[in-house]
Structure formats: C-alpha cells, structure tokens
Amino acid sequence: MLTQPFADAVVEAEKVIAEAQHIRTEQDLVEGYDYLAGSIRASLQLAWAYQRDFPFFVRSTGPYTKLGLDNPDTLYFHSYLRDDREYVVTGRRGSTADLSFQVLNGDYTPIDVPDSLTAFDDRAFEIGADGAFELRFGPAKPDAGPNHFTLGPGSAMLIVREVFSDWGAEQPGVIRIHRAGAVDAPPPLSQDVLAKRYGVAGKILLSRLRTFLAFPEWFYLKLPVNTMTEPRATPGGLSTQFSSVGHYELADDQAMIVTVPASEAPYQGFQLGSMWYVSLDYINHQTSLTADQARIDPDGRIRFVVAERDPGLANWLECTGHARGYLQIRWQRLSRKLTRADGPEVEVVRVDELPDRLPFHERSRVTPQEYAARIAARRAAVADRMLG
C-alpha cells in the first residue's frame, strides 16, 4: 500500500504518546492524543511542502498544529532551501511588533538542535516607504547589497516569525518566496513521488513527537520547580530574542506571582504550556499575556498571577486544569542584552493571600463582565490573524 509507511508511523507515534513519562492522569493521555492529531495533520502538510526547487511558505504551527511551546503571539512560517540556489523573498511589512528571519542547517531532532546559520529582524534590511521589501538568500556575492543574505553550507530551512503585541490593533504583512530565475514547473506527480512524501511525513511525525518531548529535559525540567531563570539568549541562535523559562506545579489553592519589569523592548510576552510542551488554550482562556495586554502597575512592573482558581485579577493566567506545566517569558527585537534585573521574581502563595501580597491589588481587579470581554476579544483576534 502506498500509505503503509505513514500508517506504520502513526501506530508508532501513538505508542510514543502513550508511553510519555509525564502522564499521570487520564486527562494527560487525552491531551496527548489530541496533540497527536495535530501532529499528524502538520506532518502531512510539511511533507507536501518539502519542495526546495519550487518553495512556498507554510504555517509551521498554529492553534491546531502545535509544537515546541508555540508562542500564541506569533505567526510562524517556513520554507525549505538548497544552499546552492538563490531565493527571492518579497512582501510587505505589517504593523506587528517584530518580523524576524532565521536560516537553519536542518531540523530539530531528539538528540540535537539545528545550528542557526543566520538570524536577523527587519532592522537589518531596507524597506520601502510603503512597507514593501525584497530579500535575496543565496551563495555569497561581492557587493550584493544590504538585502542579500548568504546561505551558508548546509542551509536547509528559512523560518519567518511575525510577532504581535497588541492582538487587536496590529496587522500582519504579506510574504512570499520563489527560486530566482525559475521558469520551469514541478514534474508531474507519480506514485513514486507520493510514496516518498508519505514516507517523509511518517519520519516528520515521529521526529517531531520525540524531539519535543525531549526538549524540555534539556532546557526546563532540570531547573527547580516553581522558579524561572534570569533572562538569557533564546536557544537556537535568535540574536535579538531573550527568554526566561521554568516549570510550575501548583495546588488548587495556590497561586504563583511572577513580577517582571515592563520592558522597553517592542515585544514582551508571558505564556503557559502543558507538559506536552505546547501552549495551553489561548483562544478561549487567558493563558498568555503581552505587555500591551497586561495591566502594568504604577511602579513600572507587571505582576502576573498563575493559578487554577479565578482571583478576579486582570493579569491572571489560567492553568485550565493543569496542575503542572511550563512557563516562558520572551523579549524580542531587543537593542541590548538583558540582565538579571530585567528578569522575573517568583513567589508562590495561597490564593487568599493575594490581596496582601500584591501591592496594587485593588487596582488590578476586574469584574467577571470585564474578564468575559477580554476572552471575547481574544477569540476575535485569533480568528482574524490565525484562522483566515
């Protein structure tokens, strides 16, 4: 059967999910099977997009194809490359907080993180007054100009991230890619081509599941629980991004207060993730907040409250039934390195202690109606930018 290699991979993938070490409850397993469904969908999409001579941008992750602690504030795109070809990327800059590009020499694996061969944001190239731009990626050229970026040996993938801070106000841009000078067309489909694609899809599926179950072991789970690191360069070579990470475990009557200075960086965001290393439901629940969405206290600090119980506060991040999970703060489009003073302070308290522990507690309160309006705005904003 043409599809047998992929079918076999799905069977093996279900075992990977069922044997995940973090599973403690039936709900953990159910969420794993849901994660598997999104991964199956994504793997087929990515295998069919593996066309380095006729490239196009594909959504790397989204609300229903999550992986790698996906950022709810980011649209992710990628395209596959050859290091000996030239590619033209054209588009129009939107009004988002950040637009960045990264070239990798491969894909993530369960034992390795691919090298970042180049990474930059849109401050590194010329953009027209109307927001239009044209970039070229390819072999080194003398006097190539500011909008040419050399593809180093082994270049295999171009990733584009478009990052929103104000979901309601900022607008995405436009981006497209083609191989320079291409006048031919892809060859007709054949059974051999389709068999290869199904085989590639199976390999992608198993690799992505195993990789991103191993990833937290490298960067999160060796840290003390209910703590967060000082800001550090985000692994993977994103030169203008820093992050602070951790993992939490909270009882139903506990809350974690995460206090961090509001940054001058154009983007600062905090999110929660499940033990499957994917974002929690950010459409129907407030499981993430940017500096634009959060309420900043008069002393210039943002005090997030991570809890299962509703504390009636604007900066509540909902655990949505997840007593354990991951924490991540990102700063992007930085113009300086961050220090410990820019990072978070963490305190775990009882929920009923919050009025005494939060110096601006009364100012931080919201009514149920106000909170419901926040959720309605999230649903509309996600539909507008992610599901269109």
Write a structural description.
- The chain has a five-stranded antiparallel beta sheet with strand order 1-2-8-4-5, with no helix packed on it.
- Helix 1 packs antiparallel against helix 2 and helix 1 packs parallel to helix 3.
- The protein is α+β, with helices and mostly antiparallel strands.
Ordered list of secondary-structure elements with their pairings:
Blueprint: H1 4-18, H2 26-48, E1 58-59, E2 74-80, E3 87-92, E4 98-104, E5 116-121, E6 132-138, E7 148-150, E8 157-163, E9 174-179, H3 191-219, E10 232-233, E11 241-249, E12 254-261, E13 267-273, E14 288-290, E15 301-307, E16 316-318, E17 324-332, E18 345-350, H4 354-357, H5 361-364, H6 368-386
Rg is: 22 Å
Question: What spatial form do the alpha-carbon principal axes imply?
Answer: globular
**Helix count, DSSP H or I runs of 4 or more residues:** 6
Q: N- to C-terminal separation?
A: 35 Å
The tally of strands reads 18
Low-confidence stretches: none
Biggest sheet details: 5 strands, antiparallel
Structural class: alpha+beta
Give the percentage of residues in beta strands.
25-35%
Order of helices and strands: HHEEEEEEEEEHEEEEEEEEEHHH
Throw out a few tags for this protein.
388 residues, alpha+beta
Q: Could you write a compact summary of the structure shown?
A:
The protein is α+β, with helices and mostly antiparallel strands and 388 residues long. The protein contains six helices and 18 strands.
